[in-house]
Backbone:
């Protein structure tokens, strides 16, 4: 029986920025699976879970993401929404010709904006693919093309290098994967309020079109395992997400939905004028409350993700919080790791580092984290890159020091070494009832560590924490592969395979290595980080009760002002809907406090 398939839904521009990085990670894994020296570790992650597998005219295997995404019109930049080989210029000309009224005998003037140019990275990527297929270039030409592609990838990290998420997306998408909201244009419409997307699925025609697109992917599955969704919930795509997931309930009521609201900022960015900032902050508070109340109700697990507000929480990364390209890369790195348990192959090949552990289907993961639907929120914490695992005698010595000190201090996997990636929830918050932990690409002393030893070290560290809750842990040999168009955000302390200089006990020397995914020895930096170990923790915690109470108070405060009432009214949120939001937040707060909700 094949592994259960998963369909991905992406709602909104920032969610699609995140998605572009996520699919680049998958593309990187597909490439590694074709390299004999490292293929086993990469092949332990089953691409069939996320991809529709087919064959092109040349008999080569093709992988198309099982994906439905939503964005504003014009958000694709220079990339066509009609699939490879069909240009938007051709589509535009055809649309113009068809719109001319045949009974009109006068002159016709056509005003057309200059088409958006594709990024240099995509142009070089296409050239390399074409020449590889034709096998016409010599080795010298191939090297020159590779250098040009690398230079184009580096240029993405310049000030204006990325204007659209398609500028760095390597995967080809199915034409039916892309739904652009008609009449609402990227770069023109603000679309910053949660309720602004409430009109998208209002007509029967629109609902039928998007559900038909989704149905096409569902029918291609042998065993649908669930939906994974990321949404730009601090915008009009929040309400669109709520409407879409509500529509899906009728047909797919027993299919789990993991919902990850993704945000560029963990808190409101205070960079506007006073009047505008007051209005923006009010909208932000309304968005937060509506997201928590409405989106948690239509999902199996609700787990918001944003880069930590304090950059010092990620000491080995140098990133620009105001860059969508950077912030989305961080979110995607955490998402790719969080979702590994249900993407692992049920019958994986053995790698030199052993088998992965902790595979679980999405439904079981959702049941672990949210056995009661009313309390289905989960907090995300993570270490990127994850520190190296100390030698066994060092871990025992550290354990003795903690015992002598009279209290449990954070160990290498402790909550003190991971940053919070969920706004409003601190890392290591008390009241954890269930937790899913993923460790990928573990390393020790500048070399990869086999899964058996890594799992034992992780189990010992978790036991020393003394947290009494249900824990599911997953250990995977394959580290996070860093694609060419990933931003250059790693500090100089991060070496080629993700080792951090401060973690090493002796000066590093050049060593041989097996390959680009770090499943071999050697950590000498070559100027580009090829892969990194990552640790994530996804936990159902009572801290969401406090967060729900805070959101309720702030929602009531914002909604009681004239500006707040006008804003909600413009989104179609009336008095009855406001009461429903308040009741849901109140019920969440009670559920996490252990009290029965009304």
Residues:
């Amino acid at each position: 029986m094949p592994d259960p398939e998963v369909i991905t839904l992406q709602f909104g521009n920032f969610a699609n920025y995140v998605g572009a990085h996520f699919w680049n990670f998958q593309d990187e894994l597909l490439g590694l699976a074709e390299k004999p020296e490292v293929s086993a570790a990469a092949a332990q992650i089953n691409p069939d879970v996320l991809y529709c597998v087919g064959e092109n005219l040349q008999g080569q295997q093709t992988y198309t993401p099982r994906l439905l995404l939503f964005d504003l019109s014009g958000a694709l930049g220079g990339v066509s929404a009609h699939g490879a080989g069909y240009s938007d210029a051709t589509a535009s000309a055809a649309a113009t010709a068809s719109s001319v009224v045949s009974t009109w005998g006068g002159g016709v003037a056509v005003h057309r904006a200059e088409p958006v140019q594709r990024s240099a990275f995509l142009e070089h990527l296409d050239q390399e693919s074409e020449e590889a297929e034709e096998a016409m270039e010599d080795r010298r030409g191939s090297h020159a093309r590779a250098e040009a592609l690398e230079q184009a990838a580096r240029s993405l990290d310049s000030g204006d290098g990325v204007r659209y998420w398609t500028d760095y997306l390597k995967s080809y998408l199915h034409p039916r994967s892309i739904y652009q909201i008609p009449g609402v244009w990227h770069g023109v419409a603000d679309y910053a309020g949660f309720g602004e997307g409430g009109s998208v699925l209002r007509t029967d025609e629109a609902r039928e079109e998007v559900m038909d697109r989704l149905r096409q992917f569902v029918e291609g599955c042998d065993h649908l395992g669930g939906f994974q969704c990321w949404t730009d919930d601090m915008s009009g795509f929040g309400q669109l997400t709520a409407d879409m997931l509500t529509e899906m309930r009728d047909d797919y009521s027993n299919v789990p939905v993991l919902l990850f609201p993704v945000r560029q900022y963990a808190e409101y960015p205070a960079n506007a004028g006073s009047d505008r900032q007051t209005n923006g902050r009010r909208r932000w508070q309304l968005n937060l409350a509506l997201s928590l109340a409405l989106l948690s109700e239509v999902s199996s697990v609700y787990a918001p993700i944003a880069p930590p507000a304090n950059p010092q929480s990620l000491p080995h990364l140098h990133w620009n919080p105001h860059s969508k390209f950077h912030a989305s890369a961080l979110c995607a790195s955490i998402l790719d790791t969080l979702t590994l348990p249900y993407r692992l192959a049920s019958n994986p090949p053995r790698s030199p580092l052993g088998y992965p552990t902790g595979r679980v289907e999405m439904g079981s993961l959702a049941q672990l984290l949210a056995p009661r639907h009313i309390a289905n929120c989960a907090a995300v914490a993570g270490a990127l890159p994850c520190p190296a695992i100390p030698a066994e005698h060092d871990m025992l010595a550290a354990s003795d020091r903690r015992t002598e000190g009279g209290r449990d201090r954070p160990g290498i996997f402790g909550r003190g070494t991971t940053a919070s990636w969920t706004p409003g929830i601190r890392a290591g918050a008390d009241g954890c009832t269930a937790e899913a932990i993923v460790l990928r690409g573990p390393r020790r002393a500048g070399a990869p560590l086999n899964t058996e030893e890594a799992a034992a070290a992780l189990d010992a560290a978790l036991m020393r924490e003394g947290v009494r809750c249900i824990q599911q842990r997953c250990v995977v040999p394959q580290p996070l592969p860093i694609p060419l168009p990933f931003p250059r955000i790693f500090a100089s302390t991060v070496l080629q395979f993700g080792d951090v200089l401060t973690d090493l006990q002796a000066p590093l020397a050049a060593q041989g290595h097996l390959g680009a995914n770090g499943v071999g020895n050697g950590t000498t930096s070559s100027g580009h980080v090829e892969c990194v170990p990552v640790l994530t923790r996804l936990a159902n915690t009572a801290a969401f009760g406090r967060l729900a109470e805070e959101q309720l108070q702030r929602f009531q405060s914002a909604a009681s002002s004239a500006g707040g009432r006008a804003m909600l009214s413009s989104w179609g949120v009336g008095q009855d809907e406001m009461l429903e939001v308040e009741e849901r937040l109140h019920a969440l707060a009670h559920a996490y406090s252990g009290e029965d909700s009304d």
